[in-house]
Design goal:
23 strands, ibrinogen binding protein from staphylococcus aureus fold, Helix Hairpins, 7-stranded antiparallel β-sheet, Helicase, Ruva Protein, domain 3
Length: 588
């Protein structure tokens, strides 16, 4: 569910019950658009996360600790100066709008009490966190400065007066009555569907909440409200009012909606539109949001951080795929080289019947089983002998081109395989240091400009590898990028360990640490599952996975990172399923 006005309202009530009256102990800025407050209240510590990320703007209490930059950004330093040690007086919401104000009470340089506020605006790509002085509502600073160049409608800069975001003719849903709704719908100038009317006319109503209102009202969401009868409007108001009553009475039931064992949605209230789905209920809306967004937030952050690398590698991959098409076409042309030798031989065999000036010769092909006739084009300015030599030259040229093109195709296919493996690695990034490993790799291979600084150290690489335990107790390690794959296979694994990789499909290297013990079939199957799951074939069925002992795996001289050759292998076909992976125990 989007971060709509109902979710924000539930969060505001929760924060007033948990952190109001608490003191700010620490302030961090883990990301350029994200703040983390450590708040001490009633002998408990609370972590309040506030994010103005354009993809996932939000605020809620979290349990997980976050890595913080060694040097705090300027906005974080400003907040520390003004807010450390201050007290939270209240948390409030503007109507049902996605705008929240946290009011702090602190002490100024003269020892007087002062109030300052942090305004959280959950507005998609326009989301922001704005710090203001309550006396005159001037902006002290914001996590995103908005100049007149960026927006002609609303400027957000230090020293300016803070003004609320424009309403776009939306009105407060908490104060409507049946007379207003009948009058407003009667005055509609154009056709509009019921659910879209609710979204566009009122604060804080998302698509799902608009559909929920229609559902409980027994009104079709796509019903055209222009010219509709009063009975339908009364039904719509009844459902609308029932939902609004839940806000007035603080009747929140935070829950996660689950379908096929996957979390598909969350809500602050019990949605009838999902009554046939499984729901997990929580006391805390923050817990619901934290659970729902934890994976999406990580993926979104990683996608943003790897965006430039993804584009660079994708563009290079596209060029190589186009090159491969051209080379294949040229190879097909070069494969006709044998006919040029045949033409030369036939001309030489029929020298006595040919003359200079002929454009075409139809000669019996003595080399064919049925000796059928073959048409041969001749150049009129050449003698028969010269025409034969011309075809021999074409033959030699095509033969040389065939060797060159075959080699180029092999190299281009290797390049394609390598670039696809890098893209697959980018999709599996969990940590910033893994992105740095891929940057270093691409820099060393000449795909991006050289990165200054120390090379990646080999020590403690095992801390980065994915580590699983098979059902029989064998350790299974998985590399997440080519740097880790090389380390895992070439330095970490012993000769008797088993090595796994998807056949002709980019993916992770997987190692079973045998400790010189016999490996059972279930462990082999589990390792193959992991190799298929952490590959480009993750969503395919019957994925071929090759496996052999590590002693049979070699890295050719000059091969790119992660690229190896192997022999004496077996192949197992496996369909990777997430539920099966979850049953393989993963070690931290």
């Amino acid at each position: 569910m989007p971060f709509d006005g109902f979710t924000v309202n539930a969060l505001v009530h929760e924060l007033n019950n948990t952190i109001r009256g608490g003191k700010i102990d620490k302030i961090y800025q883990p990301e350029k658009d994200e703040l983390l407050f450590i708040i001490r209240n009633n002998k408990n510590n609370f972590r309040l996360l506030i994010s103005a990320n354009p993809s996932l703007p939000k605020f809620h209490l979290v349990e997980e600790k976050k890595d913080n930059p060694l040097t705090a950004p300027s906005f974080c330093m400003l907040l520390r100066k003004h807010l450390l040690g201050s007290k939270i007086l209240k948390v409030s919401q503007l109507s049902l709008e996605r705008v929240v104000e946290i009011v702090f009470e602190g002490i100024d340089e003269m020892g007087y009490k002062v109030e300052k506020s942090l305004i959280i605006e959950i507005m998609g790509r326009h989301s922001n966190i704005i710090f203001i002085n309550n006396d005159d509502l001037t902006i002290i600073d914001s996590i995103k400065r908005v100049s007149p160049y960026l927006s002609s409608i609303r400027t957000v800069l230090p020293g300016l007066k803070y003004i609320y975001p424009p309403s776009k003719d939306r009105i407060d849903p908490l104060d409507i009555n049946i007379d207003f709704l009948i009058s407003d719908i009667a005055n509609l100038k154009s056709s509009i569907m019921a659910y879209k009317y609710l979204m566009k006319r009122f604060y804080g109503i998302s698509t799902i909440m608009a559909q929920e209102i229609c559902f409980v009202s027994c009104v079709e969401p796509e019903l055209d409200l222009k010219g509709t009868n009063e009975e339908a409007i009364i039904k719509l108001y009844s459902g609308f009012n029932d939902i609004i009553k839940k806000v007035h009475s603080i009747d929140f039931k935070p829950n996660l909606i689950i379908n096929n064992n996957k979390i598909i949605e969350f809500s602050a209230i019990d949605l009838d539109i999902y009554k046939s789905y499984k729901k997990n209920y929580f006391e805390s809306i923050s817990k619901v949001i934290d659970t729902f967004y934890s994976e999406n937030d990580r993926l979104s952050r990683m996608k943003q951080k790897t965006g430039d690398l993804h584009r660079t590698v994708s563009n290079r991959l596209e060029r190589n795929l186009e090159k491969l098409e051209v080379l294949d076409s040229e190879l097909n042309d070069a494969k006709s080289s044998e006919k040029y030798k045949l033409y030369g031989d036939l001309i030489m065999s029929n020298m006595y019947t040919l003359k200079k000036g002929m454009k075409m010769a139809v000669l019996k092909n003595y080399y064919a089983e049925n000796e059928e006739e073959t048409e041969i084009t001749l150049k009129i300015n050449l003698t028969p002998a010269q025409n034969a030599q011309n075809y021999y030259k074409k033959y030699n040229k095509s033969k040389n081109a065939l060797k060159l093109l075959t080699n180029q195709i092999i190299q281009t296919k290797k390049e394609v395989m390598y670039l696809e493996s890098v893209l697959e690695s980018l999709n599996k990034c969990f940590l910033d240091e893994e992105i740095e490993e891929i940057k270093q790799e691409l820099s060393q291979q000449g795909y991006i400009r050289k990165i200054s600084g120390k090379k990646i150290k080999e020590r403690k690489k095992t801390q980065k590898l994915l580590h699983y335990l098979s059902s029989s107790g064998f350790s299974i390690f998985v590399g997440k990028n080519n740097v880790q794959n090389d380390y895992l296979t070439l330095k970490f694994a012993n000769p008797t360990d088993f090595w796994f990789h998807t056949k002709d499909i980019p993916g992770s290297h997987v190692i079973i640490k045998t400790n010189n013990k016999a490996v059972d079939h279930s462990t082999v199957t589990e390792a193959a599952l992991l190799a298929a799951y952490y590959s480009k074939g993750k969503l395919s069925s019957n994925v071929p996975v090759d496996y052999t002992q590590k002693k049979n795996v070699k890295k050719p001289t000059g091969a790119k990172p992660g690229m190896v050759i192997y022999d004496n292998y077996k192949t197992i076909y496996i369909t990777p399923e997430e539920e099966q992976i979850k049953h393989i125990k993963q070690k931290e």
